[in-house]
Design goal:
The structure is a single chain. The chain is α/β, with parallel strands linked by helices. Strand 3 and strand 4 form a beta hairpin. The longest helix has 24 residues, at 276-299. It is globular. The two termini are 58 Å apart. Pfam families: PRD, PTS_EIIA_2, PTS_IIB. Keywords: Repeat, Transferase. InterPro entries: BglG_antiterminators, PRD, PRD_sf, PTrfase/Anion_transptr, PTS_EIIA_type-2_dom, PTS_EIIB-like_sf, PTS_EIIB_2, PTS_EIIB_2/3.
Length: 677
Amino acid sequence: MKLSHRELAILDYLLEQEQYVNYKEIAHHHGITERMVRYDIEKIEVFLKKNQLEPLNRSLKKGIMIGKRDELYQLIQAFKQRTTPKTYKYSKDEIEEFILLSLLLAQETTPVSYFEEVLFISRTTVLNNMKVLEEQFRGSSLVLKHVKRKGYQIAGELLERCLSFSDLLLKSINLRELYTFIETDEVVFSKKAELIIFNLFDLEYLSESYYAVKKLEQYLGKEFEDAYTTLLLTLIYRIQEESEGWELRQFLTKNKGELSETETLLRLMINDSSSVRAAKTQLDVKQSVYELTEIIADYFDQDMASFSATFFTQLTAHVSNMIDRNRLGIKTTNPIYKEIVSDYPDLFKLLKGAVGRLAKTYDIEISDHEISFLVIYFASEIENRHVAQKKKPNVLVVCVEGLAVSKMLQSQLKKVFDFNRIETSSLKKFSAKDLDQYDFIISTVEIPDIRSPKIIKINNYLTGHDLERLKTYFDTRLLNSKDNGLSHFNRIMETIRENTNEITNLSKLELDLIKILTKKNRLSTKELIPDIHFSVANISIMPQRLRWEEAIAIGTDGLEKIKATQAAYKKRIMSNIRKHGPYMVIAPKVMIAHAGMEDGVNHAGLWITTLKEGTNLTGNFPEEVQLIITIALKDQTTHRVMENIAKLAFNEDKINSILSSNHAADIYSIVTSTIYK
């Protein structure tokens, strides 16, 4: 069990006293309520018992006093050395975040000395941070006020302050630490979480607020996302501070005129989920969702009737919450907004125009960030319909950013890898029991209280590094989709060669034709391939037999020559083969020579080496290697390249065409038609 900064201060105070002191004296000395003192003393008693020390001496009339001081004093000094900020220097960002969180939550002026004591920083450092906050709030509805001889306070709309606090809290600590601490009353994992939890909150109020939110979920019959949970927790915590003995049950039966400002805001938030009007709104929302879906399905030539019932249920719930947020003036931010708009510009523009009627119907303004969440739902559903499921691992995606982002990750993962079942969960809902139901847990945040080799940490938007790591756990999905015209490409090129002598740059013509043939109407930007340095000059046709080191060196040296890679890239490939064997031989006759993006890649490049007499790498494929595809990738979207190259490796007809050809231009045509597919 850990002691908070305040509990340590009370113990220090008691150690200094030679006689009994009562709760009132302790409360006055520390500037807190007697109720808080009683709570802290109970925590101290538990601490003493756990460390096998004598309990505090108590007297009904006199108060409390420490008995054996020496033993307790030594323990406290050792405890401080392990747990207090004196042995931990907080970073500039951690200091800024804590100061801002404190001011946003505080209902009264906070003195500069408070931050000096808690953070162990100078007065100058505190004042410099206040200047930073003043600049940060410039042009904002929130204002940092300096009250002479008292300290600082943030003024502004209550909702804006609560929203700012809950958003920053969500970014500052792992909510799993907060949930675990409240439920177990013992574990705090990081210094940052320890600083925030023990110094920002009255722990009794925090616990009561947390369980009040859980009761609200039961009352409304729904599970809140982590961001909404944090906002409700903030509101209820403020109410607990305002009204000692506050109870949710009594609050729910109060008349409107009896509510405080904070209670009124809380009532507004939960009324939109529980009133009869909300039920009628839900029917209207469902109709609006069907109308939106009809527009999207028509544009992308999809059968609306085949959209899943789960999609309609989840999107209807999301749109309903979106309307509620707008009515309350709550702004939301999509953490992967830029990526979504970049990957799906057509869908984003289409939805931006289509939501106009929805906005007019409910008299709300729908921001671009809100629209980007809608994009995620539609993009996920459309892409899911193009991926056939296979019986593979059962996977759970745990995401703190909300349902929309978790659904996007679910869709991305399903598209690249083979799963039997892939489902999503909020961080709050996830428990150790899920480890028994799923083969793997893919999480966007650390889960410090649950350790298991089944848990895989990734980013909230898949990066190339994430995909490389996931490939060590899961098989890549090799889609057998239609060629969209590329099956005729070689015949088109042959016809052009036979019927014209006027084309001066055949390679450019080939690439232009490929781009035209591969252009898709369905979410076209998602299929864009990053710029890769590859031309006819990047193809080597070797008639003689070579040792495997010589054969691989042709491609690696070639990439180094065009400055796509550094010498370290070649060394890494050679080292990996010597260490791990022929794992890069992924299909009969075909080897994909590659290393990581961090192993000396300057920019994306590709080199093709054909070996007429082959080379020998023993292992799973005892057959001679005759085609080496040397590739260097450096882009978040390069998993599309690897997927398409893997398709090429397993396409026996194309491989035979490449190996039988003596013309680099023909090989170039086959390879590019696959890469840009």
